Every structure is written in C-alpha cells, then in structure tokens.
Amino acid sequence: MNLSQIELLRILQENNFSLSKAAEQMHIVQSAVSRQLQMFEAELGSPIYVRQGKKLIGLTPIGVRIMEEVAAIDGAKRNIRAIAADYLDSQQGILQIATTHTQAKYFLPNPILRFKEKFPAVKIYMFEAAPEQLIDKLHSHQADIAICTEKISEDETLVVNRCYEWHHAVVVPKSHALSEGEISLERLAAFPILTYGFGFTGRSNIEAAFKNTGLKLDITLAAADTDVIKTYVRLGMGVGIIAGMAYDKIIDHDLVIRDLSHLVPSSTTKIAYLKNNYLPLYSRHFIDELLLAAREMNP
C-alpha cells in the first residue's frame, strides 16, 4: 500500500469510478490503474469495489469505510501543504469564498476592502450559488469559507459562527396601496408576492410567518437576485419582500421600503468552514473582518 494507490482511490471517487478518467487524470494508462487496484485489493484481502464486468459501479461495505479514511488522508495532505505555505509566507495565497448574491453585493464589499488593505498579495476567488451548492464547494475544497443564511447549520462537519442578524422588508412603488398605513401579514397576503427562491436569503422565515397565521402566500415570482425582484416590482407585478439591507436610498428612490421585523422572524447570516481544515493566517484575519463588519451593522 502506498500514497499513489490512496490517491487513485480518491480520484476514482471524484470521477464516479471511471477507470479511463482516473487514468487520464493521473497521466497513466488504464491498464496501470486496473493493476494498482488489483494489488491494493489483494493486499487487503477483500474487494472494495462492486464490479459489473470490468466496470466499477460502486463501493462494497468495506470500500465505503476505507473511503472515509482516504478522505481523512487527503485532508491531512492538504493541511500539511497549507501549514507549510503559511509558515513560509503568511501574506500570500488564495482565499476562496462561497456565498450568495445578497451577501456578495450588500455585506462583503467593506470587509473585503479592509482585508485587501492588510493582505494585498492574497487573491480572492468568489463563487455565488445556492446554499446547498455552497456546502458542496466546501466539501470539494473549491471554497475555504462559506457565508450564507440557510442550510449550513445542518452540517455537522462544519464550524459555524453566527455573523449578523438582519430583517426582511417590503418594497413597493410609491403609488402602491402598501406604501402607507399599517403593514400586516393580512394586507400582504392580498397581493402577489415577489421574493427569493426557496433556500435563499431567509425564504424559510417568510413562509413560516405566513403559515403560522394560516395565511396563504402567493409567490408569483421567485429569484436569487434582489435586483431582479426590484425590477419586477417596478413593473407592477407584485409586492417585493427582500432583505432590508438590499434597499439603496439612492438607487431605489422610486420605491418605498416598509420594515417587516415585527412580522417576519429575523434571519442570521453565518460563516462556515470545514472542521478538519487548516485555515491560513489570512483566512482567519478575513473571518475577523467579517465579524467586525457584522458588529458595525448590529452595534
């Protein structure tokens, strides 16, 4: 058994057990891949793959358990490289951030600017996606840190830190009936609603607020991007429910914002990263900048 064989198992897992793709990625011929697997299984005394002819179609029970150890070994290798790089030069590197559109546009600019002043040589790669995809980015090591509101607290393999609380708000044209008077869920329920897609930006809290009062929520348009929601509010398609921080007094001067903090439970944006991952110094400083920005938002 050697590290090359362990690496082969990891690559096969990433490529859905394709021998040809694993051979291509490892720059060896397919017959060499098959031979290495045979040697590995012979040493263990048990097959770790389920086969259909020459094709690998899954893992045996012992294979599933072994792949857990392979993942741990791969994580240790990544951590060793990260520790060495951090020790040699903690001012350089790549920071990979996975987040949603709302966080990227309305929360992250200030902490990123301050971070870049302190770590100008660190490159930042940002991925925008749905919360489930953000978690996948962490597990596939395509992101170091995830920042979002939904889902991440459910994953026990993550370190999750509360960042800041925020509230939803209604946006309507100035001539709309909801631009004046007391806001209630009953009044909101009388209009078509434009808000975030399921799993995005506190959508679950919006649904819970209406469900708890027995009111039907008529969502006529759902989007991940707040600017899209505001665009269709301007077209008169319905009432927008957005993150309050996404309202800009200058850009959105033609819309009226109404606070919903008394009607819809507050949402909490969180910071997450893998428990077993080594975070370089610059990544830890970035988290500090996020928490500082959060305190400035919620003094």
Task: Provide an overview of this structure.
Helices cover 43% and strands 23% of the residues. It is built from 11 helices and 12 strands. The protein folds into 3 domains: 3-74, Arc Repressor Mutant, subunit A (Orthogonal Bundle); 89-165 and 268-297, D-Maltodextrin-Binding Protein, domain 2 (3-Layer(aba) Sandwich); 168-265, 3-Layer(aba) Sandwich (D-Maltodextrin-Binding Protein, domain 2), CATH 3.40.190.10. The model has no long low-confidence stretch (mean pLDDT 92). A 5-stranded mixed beta sheet has the order 4-3-5-12-6, with helices on both faces. Helix 1 crosses helix 4 (61-88) and helix 6 crosses helix 11 (281-297). It starts with a helix and ends with a helix. The protein has 299 residues and is α/β, with parallel strands linked by helices. Helix 9 links the parallel strand 8 (193-196) and strand 9 (219-223).
